[in-house]
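pipeline/complex-builder :: batch 7 item 3
reading input block
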Amino acid sequence: MSTILLVEDDPDIRHVVSYKLTRGGFRVVEATDGLAALREAQDSHPDLVILDVRMPLMSGLEVCRELRARPWTATVPIIMLTGRAQQEDIDQAYAAGATDYVVKPFSPRELQHRVESALHEVDG
Amino acid sequence: MIIREILKVTDWAIFAYFVALNSGYLVLICMAGLEFGKHLRRAPFAGADDMFRSPLTLPVSVIVPAYNEGAGIVAALQAMTALRYPRYEIVVVDDGSTDDTFERLREQFDLVEVPRVVPGEVPYRTQVLSVHVARGNPETLTVVRKTNGGKSDALNVGINLARHPLVCMVDADSVLDPDALLSVAKPFGDDPLRVAACGGVVRIANGCKVIGGRVVDVRMPRQWLVRVQVVEYLRAFLMGRTGWSRLGGLVVISGAFGIFRRDLVVKIGGMAHDTIGEDAELVVRLHHYLRERREDYRVIFVAEPVSWSEAPSSLRVLGRQRRRWHRGIAEILRKHRRMIGNPRYGRIGLVALPYYVVFELLAPFIELAALVLLPLGLWIDAVNLEFAWRFALVAYGYGLLVSLVSLFIEEVSFHRYPRWSDLVRGVLAAVLENFGYRQILAAWQVTGAAGAWGGRQAIWGTMHRQGFDTAESLPLETAGRR
Amino acid sequence: MLRVFTVTIVVLIAIVALTGLGIVAVRLVRQARQRKRALLAAGPRRALLAFVADNGADGGHDLVALPDEAWQAAEAGALGLLGKLRGEAHAALVSVFLRRGTARAALRDLRSRSRVRRARAAQVLGDLEVRLAVPELCRLLTDRHGEVRVVAVRALGRIGDPTAAWRLIASLDQSDPLPSLLVTHTLAQLGPETEVTLSAALDHPEARVRAVCLDALGLLGAAGSVHRVARVLREDSTLDVRIAAAANLGRLGARTAIEPLTGAVGPGRPAPLRAAAARALGDLGTSAGVPALVALLGDDEYRVAHEAAHALRRLGRPGLDALRSVLDTEAAEMIAAGRGTHARPSSAAGHALEALSLASVGPDPGASPPGSGTLDELVAG
């Protein structure tokens, strides 16, 4: 069973995504800010990370860069969640090391598809 | 005896003054209460999310003057880069720091030097040594090194290098709430043709849990000296300014957190060097400029997104701060004396500025006079004891009431202090304020004002080597004489 | 006299005591209310989240059947959820609201006497994307109160019905008009069918209207309007409108925009216009704009030279080459004039140098991210 690290400070979104993915057969580890995320990443070595761009304490882009700097998350798929879809935001996300990008408002089903296909790519 | 009569009259006059002062404050506080209610009722449809998502939201340049801020600069900037606002840049102006401020920044953000051409839109007096940008984020973080020149000069250099139409001036040791920038920039989006400047409330960070440059737990400070300041800030900053904002007479925006239209700041020449309260002076000059041109404009105060500052915890530092603040008030009022009582400047000239002269500038003088004249009157029998203690009780009691009403309104609208113990501490601090604090404050303020009138020039040269005091910006109403 | 004082003191003490008690009472009441609401909302909230996560597969009936009190407690959260979702989950949640009569109540409230109710109703209708509400919302564009008008504009943008375009444009032309950026964003959200209306409005007598329409066209990427916009750039009577035209020609990205823009940077035009046109040439992304931009590097106006230099930077290889050749030429001239390479560079060279060095700044893939050291401490501790 794959482990997904979900980093999101909005409780509603966190619960919806967590619920969805758990029902989809994944193990979900949650973190509500950047520092907690880095700790969890170290503890649980996730297979995929879902990361919100705007969070307290540390911006999501910063967290992404940090995750890429650590050996256990250097190559995992990182899907960024963001409220803005301007070109510069997208560019920044990819520059920080994200592999995919989902815009809020988002569709839970679509997010699950993205997660599954990202993990599939890693396997296959 | 004639002296007796004079003293009696003077004592009554002082009494009337205190009653007027506190009644004025009560009015402002009630105005503020109404404003908070209005603001909170509108939260569901205020559109903060839309503002965040819109591609057209005006970008902001956040200018951070820094002098020897090595200890906290990295944490402060990390928090600032994580603010919830669509597009903004941060311009840090290193005003000739002698510590490792720049080195820390360079290491943390991987700074790279770029040969930036510095425009001279706003005059500045020192020399720009080098301009650096963050390698990973060149459009977002710029750090300027310059020779030491004081806060005004640093801000002016920052304004020159700012790329966006709105500039927000933030102290390096301020801790901002994540939505602070969004809320304080919102009035510009809602009323773009009129809003010229907007200020955010400053609260005291002492005692609060601050992690990674963000306040995560709000608590009352440990020391009574600072607790009293918390009550003072609530009364004067939060309530006083919101009240004035609602009345359309907001004269001051705290420099620790204020946002301005860049084009207007450039037009009026940027920050002045000849006063200590350069941030407050900027706003007064803005009023002057816009009223001269009969423009329809607004200066607004926003109560909810907060900037947190470390307040002085020792008498020595507090005294220095308050002397400087009051000196600043005196200097600004003198510099713009033509506006006082002048109908040409509308509500600012006719109501706000005269109020500042009578109830802010002169208040400590009256307070000290009362402290001297009342006992004197007792001694020469101009007033009897019965009268005297009742007099004092009413005067101080009314003041206490004003503070408690502020605490009440704070509890109804924002209730930022969740613990019951902190609530009790707040009430006790409001009482304690009358026993020593306000008296010493009056003495400091009188000294400060005297310093301004004594003709000693505020040489920015000597000021800057002390660096910037924490919470040095000029609130003007913290006196809160009662 | 003494009596008066004593009475005053007693009154004061009473009020002080009352205020103190009031503070305590307010806190107690609020905490009790919050607890109650949290308790009431807990169940419905869980059900809502599960419902949404399942894309509304089931659980809808239960939510619709919830007693009013429980729903009230959870409603604010549910409305907040609406803004965060898209697709089937969103549609399912909207249908729950509709079946509970929320939209009907909101439509009624649009005519309420209280402006707070009107505004809140408009907000809800926008969140629920109720197309039926569009005519009423358009009516609110001329509401007495500014805050109601603003919510109406946002709601119309959320709903995205192009039939609102004309009314929105008209609302810009009134005393105390709507904020331009808001209207622009909304117009852009109405979709490509709005292009025709916007294009036609470029002849509107009011300058603000023309500027907003230009910006909306730019946001929409309406390449078909390039000629109209170019005409505005050349002929409009208001400078700000011409500046907006220049900026948006850059966003439209059509080759046919090059000629009008290079015309606009020519000498004799007002500086802000030339700066905007220079910037737009950079946005266009084609090397045809390079010669015109190079000519601007030495301009007296800081803004113009600055925009030109950075426009060249954004144009990629051809622009950067041009910048470098400017520097090389100047260096050669200096040597020829015997001044040496350490002489003060001309302003053109200054801007070129600035743009070139900014172009070479960027994340270095080989280097380790900065500052990981401090973070490691924070994470571990």
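note: The first strand of chain A starts at residue 3 and ends at 7.
queue -> next item
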